[in-house]
Amino acid sequence: MRKKRVLLLSEGFGSGHTQAAYALASGLRELSPAIKTRVIELGKFLNPVVGPWITSAYRKTVSKQPKLVGMMYRTQYNKSLNRFTQLALHRIFYTQTSQVISQLKPDLIVCTHPLPNAVVSRLKRLGLDVPLYTLITDYDAHGTWTSPEVNKYLVSTALVKKKLMSHGVPNSRIEVTGIPVHPNFWTTYDKTELQSQFELSPLPTVLIMGGGWGLLSRNSLFEYMTRWRDSIQMIFCVGTNVKARESMLSNEKFCHPNIKVLGFTKEISKLMDVSDLLITKPGGMTCTEGMSKGIPMLFYEPIPGQEDENCEYFIQNGFGEMFQKDTVEHWFSLLQEPYAAGQTRRDLLTKRNQYYDPMQCPRAVLEMMP
Question: Which part of the chain is the Glycosyl transferase family 28 C-terminal domain (predicted)?
């Protein structure tokens, strides 16, 4: 009997969209080995030269002109992709995307970014007969996600469902599933073993993420944190940003046995388990991963728009605070009280169980499979 096939389409505008696609794919296979999945970043896959260039230009704009990004997000909030953009996407991607779908013959297509969502929606208007699910990877619902051709929206919270309905999406086409995280985040690793693996001391540990966008070096609070380096261990993750890593390593304040500056790593799940506090950009995926681990979070420099909404959700529900001088002092003092820090994490895990089930999204997709 032929295995069911799920095609997951994403884009590389920040890693969260594609991580959500891989997380859902892994969750589906974990729950049902009879399912075959394929994840594709559409622009990079179909245009290996132009795709990465567009992604790079977007990241530079976000880093250097965040207010402009926020203004565009707000002014277009209630609008779907305009006809010109849809036509451009159609001309660039139509033939190749159609060929990919014909070759892979999926039983279901899941899009985790608005651009492939628009491309597949147009294909459906032209006769494609494959169910389209749209997984929204933030705690907000921008109008660009919406299309009449989407059969089902998978959203993080009831509030996002309400926002989608305000865009005219019927209640029956929206399922609150939470944002999926990779199965690596479903389990807890032994902290002592992790300290040995990462060559860490048995000290309170802070994990700092988001350096791939070149933002860590701009914020003076990160240098301020180093005054605790004799009593608190810090792990900076700068991703593929080689310049940021070199810049930090050349700064004497970060040159200390209790400070590690890491490049790209696939061990974020383990690093969250070995750490006691997460300082991060409030991307929807990273925040959901942090919530799944029950690690307290501090959020810095949210991109105006969706990251503001992510921040608001996690702060209002008690999973994090803004990254400020007073919150740094509070948390760095708390981490040096082992019982208090441990109790805080236990409380967050209890709260997580009330708000989030990491298996809910893949389970929901399985139940809705055609």
Answer: 205-328
The continuous run of DSSP H or E covering 136 comes out as none
Determine the Cα–Cα distance for residues 283 and 137; give it in Å rounded to an integer: 9
Q: How far is CA 183 from the centre of its chain?
A: 15
User: 306, 342, 253, 287: which is closest to 62 by C-alpha?
Assistant: 306
What CATH number does domain 4-180 carry, 3.40.50.11930, 3.30.565.10, 3.40.50.720, 3.30.2270.10? 3.40.50.11930
Q: Domain coordinates of the chain in residue numbers?
A: 4-180, 187-355
Instruction: Give the closest residue to 39 by CA, choosing from 27, 52, 54.
Output: 27
What amino acid occupies position 239?
A: G
Q: Are 264 and 240 contacting, i.e. CB atoms less than 8 angstroms apart? A: yes
Task: Give tens-digit pLDDT for 104-143.
Answer: 999 999 999 988 898 899 899 989 999 999 999 999 998 8
Which among 206, 215, 338 has a CA at the least distance from the CA of 279? 206
User: Of 135, 180, 160, whose CA–CA distance to 360 is shortest?
Assistant: 180
Distant-in-sequence, close-in-space partners of 229: CB < 8 Å, separation ≥ 6: 256, 258, 259
Q: Give the global pTM.
A: 0.88
Q: What is the Cα–Cα distance from 94 to 67, expressed in whole angstroms?
A: 33
Question: What is the chain's length?
Answer: 370
Q: How far is CA 230 from CA 84, 247, 345, in A?
A: 57, 21, 23
Give the tens place of pLDDT for each residue, 10-39.
Answer: 987 666 899 999 999 999 999 999 999 999
Separation in Å, CA 109 to CA 184, 320, 349, 364 = 24, 34, 33, 15
